[in-house]
Amino acid sequence: MVGLVYYSSRSGNTARLMERLGLEALRLPQTEPSPEVDAPYVLVTPTFADGEGRGAVPKPVIKFLNNSRNRALLRGVIAGGNRNFGDTFALAGDVIAKKCNVPVLYRFELAGTETDIARMRAGLARFWAAQEQQTCLTQA
Which of 42, 43, 89, 94 is the most buried (most CB within 10 A)? Predict the structure, then answer.
């Protein structure tokens, strides 16, 4: 089971974050056909917004989420961005969360810090434990 799916652009910031995070993850391709997932996952994505917030969600992420199966298995989103862009910082997370009715679990800047990595690891562990507990309760 892959519990993380991520997209990283040519800048590689999100890829560097994911490498340091050290958890199994599926990387979305930039141009190839989108994969289809078969288990619940958290999406990690950068933000690409213009000054008005348009285009915040990268096109490969949109393509991936346009697959209804992929969208149905999405459980949360972690978004990256650059604080220099003010209100559009990590905006992709807010857009995806609203459209897919999932929580934004965390926001990080550029390739993240060691504090971000520690918080993400701990937060994801708590999140998946809560998801497991919820699944067990609904199956009883």
Answer: 43
| Residue 135 pLDDT | 60
Helical pair 13-21 and 114-139, crossing angle rounded to 10 deg: 70
C-alpha span between 63 and 33 (Å, rounded): 9
Q: Are strands 26-27 and 74-81 parallel, antiparallel or unpaired?
A: unpaired
Instruction: Please tell me the pTM assigned to this model.
Output: 0.90
Encoded amino acid at 84, one letter = N
Amino acid (1-letter code) at residue 98: K
For residue 65, the tally of other CB atoms under 10 A from its CB is: 21
Low-confidence ranges of the chain (pLDDT < 70): 1-2, 135-140
Instruction: Write down the pLDDT at residue 139.
Output: 52
Q: Are 116 and 107 in contact (CB under 8 A)?
A: no
Whole-angstrom Cα distance, residue 80 to residue 14? 7
Q: Where do the structural domains in the chain lie, given as residue ranges?
A: 4-139
> Helix (H, G, I), strand (E, B), or coil: what is residue 67?
coil
Amino acid identity at 136 = C
